[in-house]
Every structure is written in C-alpha cells, then in structure tokens.
Amino acid sequence: MAAVTRQARVARTVILLVLGAFFLLPLVAMAEFSTRGTGGTRSLASWAAIVDDPDLVEAILVSVQLAVTSSLVVLVLLVPTMTWIRLRLPALRRLVEFLCLLPVAIPAIVLVVGMAPLYAWVNYFLGDSPLTLTFAYAVLVLPFAYRAIDAGLSAIDLKTLAEAARSLGASWGTVLLRVVVPNIRTSLIGASLLSVALVLGEFTIASLLNFDTLQVRVNLLGKRDAGVSIAVSLLSLLFAFALLFLLSFIGGRRRDTAVEEG
Amino acid sequence: MVAPVTTAAGGADKASPGRGPGRSWLAWLVVVPFLAYVGTFLVYPTALVLAGSFQDSDGSFTLDNLVDLTRGVYLQAFLRSVELSAITALLGAVLGALLSWAVAVGRREGLLRRVVVAGAGVLAQFGGVPLAFAFLATIGFQGFVTRFLRDTFGVDLFTTGAWLFELPGLTLVYTFFQIPLMVIVFLPALDGLRPQWREAVDSLGGSSWTYWRHVGGPILLPAFLGAVLLLFANAFSAYATAAALVSQGSPIVPLQIRGFLTGEVLLGRENLGKALGLGMIVVVGVAMGLYALLQRRFARWQR
Q: Residue ranges of region Disordered (chain B) (predicted)?
C-alpha cells in the first residue's frame, strides 16, 4: 500500500501511540510492582521468591508437562484421523469438523460442570495425578489444532502423495509418518505451540477440578503475596509472547512455500 | 487443484470405495479412537449438562431449573453478563478495527506487525489470571497508576468504591483482551481488501471517504458484525479473569456457576448450575451460529 495519505499517516501514528500506551502500561506497572522493596527501594525479592516456593515450582512443572502431553495427544488423535478422512472417508469430514469446532461454542466453565462427574471416574481409575487434566486440555485445544492441521493438509496434494507412496509399497503407517507428517510439519509445530500457550494459561478447568497448575497457584498466591503473583504473571505473559512470536515466523514461512507451489 | 491428473485420480478413488466390504469396514475403524475420545470427553460432559438441566435432584423430569433462570439473581446475572459482553464487544470491535487498520497499512513482514499479532495472541488467548494481576498492579489499591495519581496529583481512584473488583473493573479488563481478539479476527479481513479496488476509486476521482463509504466499508461490514458476535461470545464465556478479580459475590453467570461447583448451593438444587450452563450454551451458540453465517457471506469477497 504505497498511496497512504498524510492524514492517514497521522491517524495511524495516533492510534498506535494511544493503544500502544494502553497495552504497555499494565506491563510496565507489573514490572514496577514486582520490583518494589521496602521503603521505596527497588528489590528483586519477588522474583527470587518464584524459585524459592516449592509449590509454585511444582505447579510450573505440572503445567509444562501438561502442555507437552496435551499437544501430543491432540496431534496423535487428529493427524491420522484427518488424513484418513481426506483420503478414504470424505463423508465424515463435516462431522469431524463439527466435533472439533464444538468446544468454541461450549464455554470452558460449562464444560467443567459436565466434566466434574466424569473426572470422579477418571481419578478413580487412573489416580488423581494432575496430568489427568490432559484429557480435558486435549479437548480444549481441539479447535485450534484442527484449524492448523486442516490448513496444512489443504496446502499439500495429499491424494497424489499417498498414492505415490502406496504404489511404491509403503504401508499406511509409513505414509502417515514418512510422507504426511514431514510435509505438514510446520502446521504441526504451529498447532503444538498454540496448544502449549493455551495450556500454560488455562485456569478454569484446573481450578474447578481442584488441580494445582501454574495459573491456579498464581491466583492462590495473589491472596497472600501479590508481588510474587505479579512477577510470575509477567513472566508467563512474556513466555507466551515469545512462543507466539516464534510462531509468526513459522506461519510466514509456510505461506511462502504455499505460494511457491502455486 | 492445478493438474487435471489429480482430479482424475481423486475421482477414481471416490469411485472405488468398494474394495470389498471388509476393507470399507476397516476404513471406519481408523476413525474410532477419535470418535471415542471426543465422545467421552466432549459430547458426554455436554450431554450431562443438557440432560441435568431438565432433571431435579432425584433425576426425574422437571422444568423448574429453567423457570428459575428467568427470575431473581439468575436473571440479573444473565442480564449483567449480556451487558458486560455487549459493551466490551463493541468497544473491542471499534478499537480493535482501528488497530488492525493501523497495522494492515504497514509492511506485511514488518516487525510491528509481528509484535502486534503475537502480542494480540497472548492477550486474547493466554490471558485469564495474568490479566487480572496486570490490572491489580496498575490500578489496584497499591497499583502503579493509583500511587502515581495519589502522590503526584492527590487524585484518589477509588472515591466511588472498589470499582475495579466490580462490573466497571471487569469492563475495563475485558476490553483489554477483546481488542487483541478483534485484531486476530479482523486483520485477515483487512488483508483481503485488494489494493486494485482502492486504485480504481482513486483513478475515478474518488476520495478516501468515497472508498470507505462505497467499497471498503460495505465489503468489511459482514466481517465486522461477525467479529462483534465472536467478541460477544468470547466475553460471555470468559471466566478466569473474573474469577481472579471478583472473589466476593457472583455478579455474572460464569461466577454463579462457580458457586454451584464449589458447593455454595441450596441443597437439592445442584442441577440449577447445569441449567445456567445450558443458558450459556444457548447464548454463545446463537452468537457463534450467526458469526459463521456472516463469515460465509464475507468469504465471497476473498479468493
């Protein structure tokens, strides 16, 4: 867009400055608040307290593990199913799409109402490890993973690739792991990064099913020591930003290759 | 897509699902794990909520739960939720559209755009509890801005009460994640506007105003209205921020449901929580359904 008028340029600058200030102010405030010492001094005590709190460290580890397991479960569920449906069962495509996008229309706070009795069973059979939250989280990230993988599969000529591999004697497993997965790997990475960010930020389901995850712990800590909670909040926001910033480069590259392929 | 060979191959594949009945039965087997999983962890809990809304505590059919939604505190909670969602959806949509435009006229692969898009993703989707603490740090009783205004200008932010922990505070914090969501959904729509359209208007002597009034605006309108609905649904479903900010009372529906889950309930009326859930699904479902319709209408203008 070369023809941007002077008026438009002024308007653009004003919008960026005002909204930029609106969004940066709370972040600056968090940095200021979390570095307050006694009597108007600066101190990193709140930040140091993050690693000194074994419960908090434990909760962070739980959330990181959940992020990994949930991403894996959703990929293992979706990639074979979506590939197979495109190749052999196109009649089911509508149904699978509907099911995958359904969590968008069902608020997490409502889902957890129905999940509470279900988790009584899950915890009876599998123990009450917080990692059982994986089941709920895989559902939560379903729409996001579905969209990413769907875009990936649409960008390749799946039928030709699969037929070529099959006619050379590859099994379906080989087709999936050595043909499909490498070809849509950027989508898979994108889906995983998004899932990781969502799981690390999740609060609703974990707190109402009484599991100690990062956000639950942060919320609890806030009642006692706001400084530490604010430090962890800022840290987790910055970490999520780093993940999504990384994602923007992956997304960009994928678009480029799609253009090259025509 | 491009090569006719592909279409031919695709057609042949479609024409021969009959590689023997045994094979097609096996083909369905591949989908079973997915359907079983989604059935257990998505469809079953949802069905439980829906069914529970129509049952009393003994499990027999009743409409009492739904009738109760239409009066007293529950009706008020719904009205407040709708009000909060509508206001923040409109604010978010207008401000978010402006921000999207400011970003869209810049370079496609530029740093500004990357930072805004990544930041928007974080605030819109990661959000929740950290956002509540962000605002506590800013305009809480000991917040950065609160202190600054008090020490420098002698202004007290809280003369009208603890508004940050009530509906006005929720409106402010919700807007903080609604604007970013608008950027995420509206930026692709702005990218869909072709520069040729603008050039056509310019070469025919039209002004900026002509372009937005007769070309850009009408094309973007369905996308904008759809985004308002999506933002509405987003605010209506949001729980984490409100839960972290409001610890006393349950002004909005998600917090009412929290009350039912943490056991602050009238004995024998546990299923009222499920009816509240049903009410939320209906409101969000209608908003998302209309959103999908508007999206389809807008898609005409994109390749």
A: 1-20
